[in-house]
Specification:
By secondary structure, the chain is mainly α. It has five helices and four strands. The structure holds zinc ion (ZN) (2 copies).
């Protein structure tokens, strides 16, 4: 049995501190402050991204799937758009109550839920 191998096992690696590359302190960021994180807030999605661009792309790909207006062929991805579309284009087909309810809608899921429940 060669003694050299046994000896190598005992050599503690911790005597020399690891050199951790300081990748976080990239130029442009103050040290100690990590880059901003962008959280997706759709439903139960908890994705987060370092760059706003990536978050926007994720939202477009995963959440802003085009849907059609329930009264015509207009396609929409943003809830603000469908709400103002209903209120301006289909105003005469809505009751006052429905119009007020549409104005109060918040969030894509709530909006879809409202229109699908029609
Ligand atoms: Zn998401
Ligand atoms: Zn429409």
């Amino acid at each position: 049995m060669p003694p050299s191998e046994h000896h190598r096992d005992e050599a503690p690696e911790l005597t020399r501190p690891h050199q951790i590359p300081k990748s976080r302190s990239a130029p442009g960021y103050k040290s100690g402050i990590t880059a901003a994180e962008w959280y997706c807030h759709y439903g139960e999605c908890e994705k987060k991204y370092r760059r706003l661009q990536e978050l926007i792309r994720h939202i477009r790909d995963k959440h802003e799937i085009p849907r059609k207006c329930f009264l015509c062929d207009m396609e929409w991805t943003r809830t603000e758009k469908i709400r103002s579309h209903y209120i301006t284009r289909h105003s005469d087909q809505l009751t006052n109550e429905e119009r007020e309810e549409i104005k109060r809608l918040r969030g894509r899921n709530n909006t879809i839920h409202f229109f699908e429940g029609w």
